Amino acid sequence: MEETSREAVATAVQRVAGMLQRSDQLDKVEQYRRREARKKASVEARLKAAIQSQLDGVRTGLTQLHSALLDVKDIQSSLADVSKDWRQSINTIENLKDVKDAVVQHSQLASAVENLKNIFSVPEIVADTQQLIEQAELLQAHRKLMELECSRDDLMYEQYRMDSKNTITELFPTRLRPQVQGLSDELAKQLWMVLQRAMVTVRRDPTMLVSVVRIIEREEKIDRRMVDRKKQTGFIPPGRPKQWKDKMFKVLEGTVSTRIESTQAVTREADKMWLVRLLEITRKYVQDDLIVVKNLMVQCFPPHYNTYNRFFLLYHNAVSTRVTELASEDLEANEIVSLLTWVLNTYKSEEMMGHPELSSECDVHQLEPLLPQAVVDELLSKYVKTFTSLMFTWTRSNITGWLRKALETDKKDWQKETEPEADQDGYYQTTLPAIVFQMFEQNLQVAAQIDSDFREQVLKLCLKQMNSFLVRYREEAVTYKDEHLRDRQLPQCYVQYMIAIINNCQTFRESINSLKRKYSQLSEPTESDAAIERTLSEVAKEGCQFLLDEVFLDLEHHLNELLTKKWLSGSHAVDTICVTVEDYFNDFNKIKKPFNQEMTSEALRRVVVEYIKAVMQKRITFRNADERKEGAERMIKEADQFKFLFRKLAAGEDTDQLCGAIAAIAEVFKLTDPTLLFLEVSTLVSKYPDIREEHIQALLAVRGDASREMRQMIIGTLSENKVSFSGPTQPIFRDITVPTITMTTMTTMTSMATAKLLK
After folding, report:
1. In CA terms, which of 253, 398, 498, 546 is 20 to 30 Å from 145?
2. For the chain, first and last CA: distance in Å?
């Protein structure tokens, strides 16, 4: 206590010293004393209230314990009375045996009377149930089926209890049994059909799948109830337990197996790359299906089914069975490489079962191997025997020919009337990158088993051939664009496949980097690396340019309306431009980063440049201040429209700067006092330093009230006094040319402006 007191005193002294650091604070000593006294009183009051609350709680608890003790004594007394009465009533219960038998007989008769309605309405109920099944109203059909089965089971149970030959209880089950069993079998067929198409059903009509699961859950509850009653009474109705839940899982297992077995679309005779295509289709099917299971199907099943893990194992087992069948076939050397690469590397990688969206629920490393080690060793041994002779006959021309064939196949896909496939993120793509790098990967894996130097040589060869291939790829993309421009109606999916071509560039880049990290010990970039990167960038950039050209071909008519008399009187050209751009960019959302960002920024720049070109072409000359004000306000409004649109499209930080150029020009037009034009033009030049003299001349000409002397004065002053730049800017006016004006036109405009000024 003494130590605590000393600490309190020391703290108080320190606090008082803090309060009285200056002489003028001595006047407030009394005020400080009263404040501290109030704080002390408040703390003491809270302590007293807390202690009082604790005491009240203890007092209440003791009162409740005393009351509970009295209640326990009363219960003990009541239990003693009940035990005494029960011992006295044993003889009375034995004398009621006849009454018990009468009750059982009454129960049987009551059950028969209760089900008389069903006995006579069996044909009608059966017909209604059959119709509901045919109409796919499964829940309603099952409800009626349960009513029939319940009536049958109740009567049969009563008959079983009395072991009687009552006509009613015999007749009802005899008439009902085959019809009810037939309805049950028919309903089961419908359930199994829905489950066999579960992957399609869950996308189109998940409620149907939920209905099937609910019916099976109902039947499981009835099965459990009947099994429990059998343990108590020895009776169980015919056809029970149905075990539909077990049958459901067997049907799903068969569905998954059929799905995997159906992936083989071609044979070796029809396509040398049949196995690569088969494995790629299998990979896509499995990955897409499991994503559907995780995102959609899990919601249709009860949580205790552990649906996702169950399907994960079903697909694994089905793939394992299929791969084992493929391994038992007479595979060629390159097919062995494809199969082993897929089994040992691709299957558990992020491209398939190890995908982040799949592996978050299941640990792919806990799965059993797809192929037993003995089968893997046998395939490797078979490959090594044939590899020596094949490896030395493998030349550059083989790779070139193979790449050319892959490109020709991809070009045929570009002419399809259906959109290209999308990856798991929704970006359009073709199978070309996967096929090309599957071949590279296979040969590099083989080379890595021979020698590290040989592996490096093979990698260099692959990269060199890749560069030549990309040059050809670029040429084919340009040809594809030129053919489309001859008839813009063909191909129908030109935009979508051009997007896929752009996305393929990013896939090529990622795959090349992956190969280099995996198979190369060299850290420094080579000439092939730079050439490949340059070609990929050019292909993607040109593809984006082609798509923007497509957009601006549709916008050409509306762009020509800008800054015309029609525009000034109320044209909807900018509204149409914004709607068209947004519509195109709904498709352009399928472009991968960073190309989509660059393309959006370029689209904004081109729209702004075309708008400013319309100004510089002097399609209109404002006749008075009202027209200038109306035109300027319209330009500011349309600049805001562009800004809103491209912010929504995520054009980046340049949106305000680019759209601001239109608003800045509008401010030049909007100015009512011509004597202040120099200041407004100076502000414009400071924001956009790439603006040239002819641009300023054009702006003043469109304004319509600047005399020749005033224009010369403004230009001369700006030339003599270089305007300081307000910050980093993006060139806008650099690519905008101003059409030349004849001397006659200039003289006429000057005379009109002078007359207006004099007036």
Report:
1. 253
2. 100
